[in-house]
Task: inverse folding
C-alpha cells in the first residue's frame, strides 16, 4: 500500500515528537532507581491511570480483538475474560490498596516482605524474578509479532533481506522496537508515562473517528445481509450456535480450531481461571509498576478503577468500527483465501480501504502509539528485577544510584534484544497470546493466590509452586500438543497447587515477626486467624479487615459495569439502539452502586 504524503508526514512527526518528549524528560530519571522505575512515586493517579490504559491498548491485542468480534459477534464480549480483563476490577476494589501498602519497588521485593529473608524467601524471590523475566520476554515477542505484521501492510518500503534472511515484517519490528527503546532506556518511568499520555490522546481520537466512519459507511441493512444468525446476540447457551455456512465457511473451521463450539463450558473455564488469576494480584509487569508508583493506597485503587474508564469504551469504538467495516466489505477477499484465511489481516484491510487521507495517518500513528506504549511499559518494568532484585541484592548491595541507573539501561537493552530473538521464532499472534494468558498464567496462579490469603503458606511453598507451575506451563504444550491452552490451565494449576501445599506443610512456617509485620502493614482478609490474634495481643487497637463480603459484592458489580463499557460501543456502532439504551442504564446503575459501596468507603491512608 502506498501511503499519501500527508499520512506519512503525520506518522513521522508523531515518531519524532515521541522520541524528543521522552529524551527531554529523561533527566528526571537519573536520580536513582526510585526515580527511574517509579517516578519518585509523585505522579497523580489519573496520569498513571491513563498511562496504564495506554500500555494495555496494544496493537497486537487490537488485531486479535477485531478478529474475534468479526467471527464471534457480540459473544466476543466474553472472550477477553481469557486474559482476564476483569482483573482490573479486583485491583480496583481491594488488591491495589493491599499492594501499595507494601511500599516496595517490585514484585520480587514484595516477596521479602511476605516471607522474610531466610532460605525459603531467597528461593521464592529467585522464582518470581525468573517468572517476571519469562513473562516480559513473552510479551515482547507478542509485540514483535504484531508490529511487524501490521507495518508491512501500510508502510511502503520492502525491507526484505536488509539483513540476510530477515523478512520485511521482522525488519520493521526491529526498527520500531529500536525507536521506542531510545526513550525508554534513557528516561525510565517519567519518559514512559508522559509519552503514553500523548499516545493515549492520539489513540482515543483515532478510535472515536473509526467508530464514526463505520457508522457513516455501513447501514444496518448492509450488516443484516452478511451476518449469520446469532451474531448480534450477546447471550449464549451450552453451544455457540453461530453458523457461518454459506457466508464464510472458513469461520466455522476457525471456531472449531479455537475450541469454542461448546461455549458454555469455555465460559465457565474462563470465569474459573479468571477469578483465580485475578485474586492472585497483578503479575510482575507494568501494571504492578503503576500501582507501586502511586502516592498512596487510596490513589492506587483510584488509578486501577480509572483504567477501566480510559481503556474499554474508546478501544471498543475502534474494534467495533473496524469489525463492522470488514464485515460489510471484506468477505469476498476472505472467501478467496479458502482454507488459508488469515483473520488477523482484518484490521489492516479495514484501515487500508475505508479511512480517508489524514485520518489514516492519525490512526496509524495511534496504532503505532498503542504498540509503543505497551512495549515501553513492558521494557521499563523488566530491568527492575535484574538490577534491584538480582544485582543489588546478591552481587553488589552497596552500589551507588548512578551506577544502578546505568546498569538498568544496559539491562533494558539486553531484555529488548532477547525479546526480539524470541519474536523471530513465534508462529502467530494467536499462539503467543493463548500461551501467555492460559499456560504461563496457569503456573503463576496457585502460589500467588495463596500468598495473600493463607498465613501458613511460606517461601518454600511459593518456590515449589512457582517452579512446578512454570515447568508445567513449558512442558504441557509439548507433552499434550492437541490440548488447547485454555484446557491445559487446570492441569498446570493442579500440578502447582500440590507443590505449593506440600512445600509449605513439609517445612516450617515463616517467623511470627515476619508474618505479623506483613499482616499488620498490608491488612488482608483471609485465613490469618493465628496471626491476627498475635497482632491484636500486641496492639489492641488494630482493626481486622472485615471487608470480604463487601469487596466480593463490589467485584461482582464491577465486572458487570466493566462488561457494559465493552458492549456499549458495539451496540452503538451496530445501531442496536434498544440494547444500547439498556446497556447504558445498567452501566449508570452499577457505577452509582460502586460510588456508594466502593469509592465512598476507600481508605484515607
Result:
Amino acid at each position: 500500500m502506498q501511503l499519501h504524503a500527508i499520512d506519512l508526514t503525520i506518522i513521522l512527526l508523531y515518531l519524532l515528537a515521541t522520541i524528543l518528549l521522552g529524551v527531554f524528560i529523561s533527566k528526571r530519571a537519573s536520580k536513582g532507581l526510585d526515580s527511574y522505575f517509579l517516578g519518585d512515586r509523585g505522579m497523580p493517579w489519573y496520569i498513571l491511570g491513563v498511562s496504564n490504559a495506554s500500555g494495555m491498548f496494544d496493537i497486537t491485542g487490537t488485531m486479535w480483538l477485531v478478529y474475534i468480534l468479526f467471527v464471534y459477534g457480540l459473544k466476543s464480549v466474553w472472550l477477553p475474560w481469557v486474559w482476564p480483563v476483569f482483573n482490573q476490577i479486583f485491583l480496583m476494589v481491594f488488591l491495589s490498596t493491599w499492594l501499595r501498602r507494601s511500599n516496595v519497588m517490585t514484585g520480587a521485593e514484595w516477596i521479602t516482605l511476605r516471607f522474610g529473608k531466610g532460605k525459603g524467601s531467597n528461593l521464592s524471590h529467585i522464582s518470581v524474578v525468573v517468572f517476571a523475566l519469562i513473562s516480559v520476554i513473552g510479551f515482547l515477542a507478542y509485540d514483535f509479532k504484531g508490529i511487524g505484521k501490521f507495518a508491512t501492510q501500510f508502510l511502503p518500503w520492502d525491507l526484505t533481506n536488509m539483513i540476510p534472511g530477515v523478512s520485511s515484517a521482522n525488519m520493521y519490528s526491529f526498527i520500531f522496537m529500536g525507536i521506542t527503546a531510545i526513550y525508554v532506556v534513557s528516561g525510565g518511568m517519567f519518559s514512559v508515562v508522559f509519552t503514553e499520555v500523548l499516545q493515549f490522546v492520539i489513540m482515543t481520537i483515532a478510535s472515536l473517528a473509526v467508530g464514526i466512519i463505520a457508522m457513516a459507511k455501513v447501514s444496518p441493512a448492509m450488516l443484516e445481509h452478511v451476518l449469520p444468525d446469532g451474531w448480534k446476540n450477546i447471550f449464549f447457551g451450552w453451544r455457540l450456535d453461530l453458523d457461518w455456512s454459506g457466508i464464510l465457511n472458513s469461520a466455522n473451521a476457525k471456531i472449531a480450531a479455537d475450541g469454542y463450539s461448546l461455549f458454555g463450558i469455555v465460559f465457565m473455564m474462563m470465569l474459573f481461571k479468571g477469578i483465580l488469576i485475578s485474586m492472585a494480584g497483578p503479575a510482575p509487569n507494568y501494571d504492578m509498576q503503576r500501582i507501586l508508583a502511586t502516592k498512596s493506597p487510596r490513589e492506587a485503587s483510584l488509578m486501577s478503577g480509572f483504567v477501566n474508564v480510559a481503556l474499554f469504551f474508546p478501544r471498543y469504538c475502534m474494534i467495533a468500527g473496524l469489525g463492522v467495516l470488514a464485515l460489510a466489505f471484506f468477505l469476498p477477499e476472505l472467501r478467496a483465501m479458502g482454507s488459508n484465511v488469515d483473520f488477523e489481516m482484518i484490521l489492516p484491510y479495514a484501515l487500508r480501504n475505508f479511512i480517508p487521507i489524514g485520518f489514516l495517518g492519525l490512526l496509524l500513528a495511534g496504532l503505532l502509539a498503542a504498540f509503543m506504549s505497551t512495549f515501553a511499559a513492558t521494557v521499563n518494568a523488566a530491568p527492575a528485577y535484574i538490577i534491584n532484585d538480582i544485582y543489588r541484592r546478591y552481587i553488589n548491595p552497596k552500589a551507588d544510584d548512578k551506577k544502578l541507573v546505568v546498569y538498568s539501561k544496559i539491562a533494558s537493552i539486553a531484555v529488548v534484544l532477547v525479546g526480539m530473538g524470541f519474536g523471530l521464532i513465534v508462529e502467530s499472534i494467536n499462539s503467543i497470546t493463548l500461551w501467555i494468558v492460559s499456560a504461563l498464567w496457569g503456573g503463576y496462579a496457585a502460589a500467588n493466590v495463596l500468598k495473600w490469603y493463607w498465613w501458613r503458606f511460606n517461601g518454600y511453598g511459593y518456590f515449589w509452586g512457582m517452579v512446578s507451575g512454570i515447568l508445567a506451563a513449558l512442558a504441557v504444550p509439548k507433552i499434550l500438543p492437541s490440548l488447547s491452552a485454555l484446557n491445559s490451565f487446570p492441569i498446570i494449576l493442579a500440578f502447582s497447587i500440590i507443590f505449593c501445599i506440600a512445600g509449605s506443610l513439609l517445612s516450617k512456617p515463616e517467623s511470627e515477626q515476619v508474618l505479623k509485620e506483613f499482616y499488620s502493614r498490608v491488612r488482608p482478609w483471609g485465613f490469618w486467624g493465628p496471626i491476627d490474634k498475635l497482632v491484636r495481643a500486641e496492639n489492641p487497637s488494630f482493626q481486622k479487615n472485615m471487608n470480604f463480603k463487601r469487596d466480593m459484592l463490589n467485584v461482582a458489580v464491577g465486572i458487570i459495569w466493566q462488561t457494559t463499557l465493552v458492549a456499549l460501543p458495539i451496540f452503538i456502532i451496530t445501531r442496536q439502539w434498544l440494547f444500547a439504551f439498556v446497556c447504558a442504564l445498567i452501566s449508570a446503575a452499577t457505577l452509582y452502586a460502586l460510588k456508594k459501596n466502593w469509592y465512598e468507603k476507600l481508605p484515607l491512608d
